[in-house]
Amino acid sequence: MAPMNDRSPGTPAAARPLRVAVLLSGNGSSLENLLEHIDAGEVNAEVVVVISSKEKAFGLERARRRGIPAIAVSRKQHPAKQVFNDRLHEALAPYDVDLVTLLGFLSLFELRGRYAGRTLNVHPALIPSFCGTGFYGSRVHEAVLASGVKLSGATVHLSDDQYDTGPILLQEAVPVLEDDTVDSLAARVQEAERRLLPRAVQLFAEGRVHVEGNRARIDG
Ligand code: GAR
Questions:
Q1: Which atom of ligand 1 is nearest to the CA of 124?
Q2: Which range marks the domain in which residue 59 is found?
Q3: Count of Cβ atoms closer than 10 Å to residue 118 Cβ
Q4: What is the rounded distance in angstroms from the CA atom of residue 185 to the CA atom of residue 158?
Q5: Residue 93, Cβ density class (10 Å: 0-12 exposed, 13-18 middle, ≥19 buried)
Q6: Domain annotation covers residue 112
Q7: How far is C-alpha 16 from the geometric centre of its chain's CA atoms?
Q8: What is the model's pLDDT at position 220?
Q9: What is the pTM of this model?
Q10: Which atom from ligand 1 is nearest to the alpha carbon of 105?
Q11: Would the CB of 103 count as within 6 Å of ligand 1?
């Protein structure tokens, strides 16, 4: 188990940068964004491993270019959910990870106790709306536009063992405009994601996140 006690309430944040794993399935622009914030000194963290559920995900290439270990654990080649998760956990194990981030990861990551309370998911809508099985990427924005709601947004929440549930840590609303397309709405939501996720990782780095029931509280 990673030394989360170092980051518990009332104790100063550990000097060591937070060791972050990124799980993704695609382009990896969210990974790039996190790395840029780390480079800028705004987030006291280090991405120690990137794992993709798709072998050809560009996110793996982004990691390799920066010298970050990049591992494919193909969902296709592991049709049994449990075996797939066995492989994910084996891939994570050597890296002494403090925080797992699901950045466009399109499969279910089983926490198995080990990563409970320290796994973040980013969702491109205001949970609990427009989320759950089948709601990912452009499908989310299509559903938002079809529904006629006037607000959408981005959510960062702690994962549990289901899709898009678990205590919400940060949310930011964005307007849905009259002339929005899926692409224009997605771009506006993604801008919000790019502010929220680095902030959420930094809150973990500072040991300021606490969960009580279904509520995630931020100290200070
Ligand atoms: C992100 O916009 C994220 O919100 C979405 O996938 C995109 C990943 O883009 N995640 C989901 O829809 C999860 N339900 P990226 O690969 O360029 O970072």
A1: 4
A2: 18-208
A3: 22
A4: 24
A5: exposed
A6: yes
A7: 21
A8: 87
A9: 0.93
A10: 13
A11: yes
User: What residues have CB less than 8 Å from 218, skipping those under 6 apart?
Assistant: 169, 203, 208, 209, 210
CATH of the domain at 199: 3.40.50.170
- The protein residue with its alpha carbon nearest to ligand 1, atom 8, reads 104
User: Ligand 1 atom 11: the closest Cα is on which residue?
Assistant: 136
28 lines ligand 1 (CB under 6 A): yes
92 lines ligand 1 (CB under 6 A): no
Tell me whether residue 7 is in a domain: no
The residue assigned the tokens 């200070």 is: 220
Condensed to tens digits (0 to 9), the pLDDT of residues 77-103 reads 999 999 999 999 999 999 999 999 999
Residue 10 domain-assigned?
no
52 Cα: distance to centroid of ligand 1 (angstroms): 13
CA nearest neighbour of 190 among 125, 121, 120: 125
